[in-house]
């Protein structure tokens, strides 16, 4: 038997809930302002409920009934709701402490917040590293991971990839199990599931709910799941049902009493028909032909509920729990520091990002291939240019192309960033980390790949084009190209954070790069640029500083031969006047002067400005992520 197997021992006691007896809510009411009439509109109205340890509650209702809103309110995720919320939420009959609540609860999103290029075991490992307190040792973390793999029947898939569009991974049902398991890594006592069977067939749905039920019963957990029209067998696995219709309660109580209740109300469920399907259709008003008849029917349903024995029993049960008001001291102790650490979280994110980036070729692999193709094209178009005055403009054009188009092609990073951002939004909502850790990891992960791209591109394009053939000039070019790519990727991060929609972010980034090209100093020299564009955009244009740095690197220490001219006094005609004209040569500094750039070595100042622009983009990106919750 391995050490891991000895640690697990077939069970894991810490997952078991021993101190959370009940979870209840009373008078949950949510209102929003109608966009057209600007009048308050009720989304949820006076919703009550209670769930005991070891029970599964199904939160059901037609689309627009308020299921997701109620689930978010109960899970203390109201920061994402632009609404007025009034709710009393209790644990063991006492008001829930927000800090305690975050520690003892977990929320599983409707869409799997998984990285497709990680294996199942790696996914659980990173979930543990991001969420478990510093006090939890590495040995205990491994123990939790292996115990969950065993509990969810994922041992055989532990080393399989989750799956990407390019590489097939585990099945849909297994992904949902991984999502639930990754939230159980912190041993929560309350588990919230948002549409856990969404996108799954009936067999996979039954499989997922069955695993959740087994875990809940075995470890005495409380599970609340919003679910849309489950199959008969899946529906029967739930202990309780809260049925919503137009923001009100249509039924709340044991699943076993659904049929007798509707029979007693005069709305019998047909024999051999799925009860879940019948009650959802019954309270659904979206496809009603006679609106008044349906409204009358719903009013009767809501009225019947408020007068029912079950409604009274729910309020009585809540009142009894509140009267006991015996929240255990162990529960309050759960409010301890639950952070994984200010250093551990960024390190875990960096590690995860590196694994994702080298396994997922979309992030950087395709970009490297694209840039290498661009380098070959550039090197063969500007092939072996001789340092003559006739080629001066070609050298300048090549410098502009190398910087501007490398920057422009950074738009290829948008899909990868939007995928990372979507994962960040979900993990942030679960309280794992904030925008600082996310952007640090994003920036650090990109540095080696962008440097590799700059180096590979330069090795091909620089020497084929016959730029100044010295090691110093070559590595200075690489530096400028690297800073150019860092600034371009930082711009992508900023724009994609402001507008997290692929097509719009693509258009916005392309427009910004077009603007930087126009005001960078190549198409129109800075001294002749329109004052508005010069003073508003030129001095914050990172491409302008890259172009100036690259041009200075090429021209400041290189001379170019003039064209022969029999009629000229010294036998040649030079396009630029310089001190070397008598030798039939043009000093590169004369070319710099025509662009308004001084001959001095101002590389340090330009690099400092570039670093400031890059930092500015990243800080603005952080501010956008900090202010936006979705």
From TrEMBL:
Main localization of the protein described in the UniProt heading: membrane
Pfam family of the protein (one): ABC2_membrane
Subcellular location as annotated: Membrane
The keyword ATP-binding appears for this protein: yes
Protein keywords: ATP-binding, Membrane, Nucleotide-binding, Transmembrane, Transmembrane helix, Transport
Record-annotated membrane-spanning stretches: 361-383, 395-418, 439-465, 477-495, 502-524, 606-627
Membrane topology type: Multi-pass membrane protein
MF annotations from Gene Ontology: ABC-type transporter activity; ATP binding; ATP hydrolysis activity
GO CC annotations on file: membrane
Domain ABC transporter, chain residue ranges per copy: 25-271
InterPro entries: AAA+_ATPase (IPR003593), ABC2_TM (IPR013525), ABC_transporter-like_ATP-bd (IPR003439), ABC_transporter-like_CS (IPR017871), ABCG_dom (IPR043926), P-loop_NTPase (IPR027417), Plant_ABCG (IPR052215)
Family named by the database record: Belongs to the ABC transporter superfamily. ABCG family. Eye pigment precursor importer (TC 3.A.1.204) subfamily.
Protein's UniProt name: ABC transporter domain-containing protein
